[in-house]
Amino acid sequence: MQLTVHTDYALRVLLYLAHFPQKRVGTEEISSAYGISKNHLVRVVHTLAAGGFLRVTVGRSGGVELARPPQEIGLGEVVRASEASFRLAECHETAQNTCPIVPVCGLKPCLDEALAAFMSTLDRYTLADLIRDKSRAKFVQLVSP
């Protein structure tokens, strides 16, 4: 399974903001730090705000900041909010499924179990866990334009 770029960027945005907890950050700053399109980043920020992870302030002194403390932002929750689909194979899409062996195939239950294990692992971690042992100074050096 591969997460979409949208989810990858969502996690990066949250990591960035977790390292600057007392600061409202402009999307230009995050875009520049990661070298990603500002237009794409705006869509990601919209998703994160709709999911209750970010607070967005518009205007001259606007920007984004975490809506909750890092220890209250679960990685599984973020992935569920930012992934459009968890379709691992065609059989997960009942409406468009054309696979002729679905009635006798044992693959779907295996994939369902694997996805549940993947999400269960993510559910054990929060944003705070990702930054706990990392040096803020090193992170800032890496992302500074």
Task: Characterise this structure.
With 145 residues, the chain is mainly alpha-helical. It has a domain at 5-85 and 126-143: Winged helix-like DNA-binding domain superfamily/Winged helix DNA-binding domain (Arc Repressor Mutant, subunit A, Orthogonal Bundle), CATH 1.10.10.10. Helix content is 50%, strand content 6%. The chain is built from 7 helices and 2 strands; from the N terminus they run H-H-H-E-E-H-H-H-H. A two-stranded antiparallel ribbon has the order 1-2. Helix 4 packs across helix 5. The mean pLDDT is 86.
CATH-defined fold name of the domain at 5-85 and 126-143: Arc Repressor Mutant, subunit A
CATH class of the domain at 5-85 and 126-143: Mainly Alpha
Radius of gyration: 18 Å
User: Which strand order do you get reading across the main beta sheet?
Assistant: 1-2
Mean pLDDT: 86
Unreliable stretches covering 5 or more consecutive residues: none
Shape, please?
elongated
Number of separate helices: 7
Quick one: biggest sheet? Answer: 2 strands, antiparallel
Order of helices and strands: HHHEEHHHH
Q: Give the full name of the CATH homologous superfamily of the domain at 5-85 and 126-143.
A: Winged helix-like DNA-binding domain superfamily/Winged helix DNA-binding domain
Q: What distance separates the N and C termini?
A: 32 Å
The count of DSSP E runs of length 2 or more, i.e. the number of strands, is 2
Strand content: 5-15%
Helical proportion? 40-55%
Query: What is the CATH-assigned architecture of the domain at 5-85 and 126-143?
Result: Orthogonal Bundle
Give the class from helix and strand content and strand pairing. Answer: mainly alpha
